[in-house]
Amino acid sequence: MTLIDNLEWRYATKKFDPSKKVSAQHIELLKRAIQLSPSSYGLQLYKILIIEDSTIKEQLKSVSFGQSQVTDASHVFVFCNYVKVTDEDIDAYFSLKSQIEQVNISDFKGYSDFIKADVNSRTLAEKNQWTSNQTYLAFGNLLNACSELKIDACPMEGFNTIAYNKILGLDKLGLNATVIAAIGYRSEQDNSQNTSKVRKPMENLFIEHK
Ligand SMILES: Cc1cc2nc3c(=O)[nH]c(=O)nc-3n(C[C@H](O)[C@H](O)[C@H](O)COP(=O)(O)O)c2cc1C
User: Fold this and answer.
1) Residue 122: pLDDT band with limits 50, 70, 90
2) Among 66, 124, 179, 200, who pairs with 204 as Cys (CB 3.0-4.6 Å)?
């Protein structure tokens, strides 16, 4: 199975080769993998910043515990979740759905009201948690797509969220930096590539009711 081979190949890259860049064509494929990710109700309540600019990367590194992946990687994908979820976000989804499916928007009224009631029953903290959960699904797809294209990646939560939100102007966009991925190509000197995968044995990971 190719997916398993890819998952065995990938590892959280600690040292990137700063001279190697991911091609524009591959960036488009990675964007497509993220775009195709499933999300709760299909709402896609997130945005992804793709940072290539070295000045911004330097700023981000200083609030990422100095992790060199942020500056040495070709691109940094910053996954951001919506902080609030409004009725307008749900209306925007149904407007798009009615256009794409060529269905009158009024046909979706019942379903739309149902989603609004569900979303509005949540506290702001719960909404934030919910949108951030969705973000991780798209994030996982990015990592898998990278491995298929033999692009290295480091998934990272080791950064100061408040500082990221400030540097990237996320607050005023109603966004919050959830998780990031530095992507590029491994340095030959990255020792992590030679270490064995540390994973729980199957019997500790699964409970099967047959
Ligand atoms: C959500 C998440 C956050 C992570 N944050 C960091 C990080 O800030 N820095 C880092 O070097 N690795 C980070 N990692 C990498 C993990 O330590 C790594 O995935 C795990 O040890 C398994 O190793 P492998 O990915 O090489 O198989 C993170 C991984 C995930 C999934």
Assistant:
1) very high
2) 200
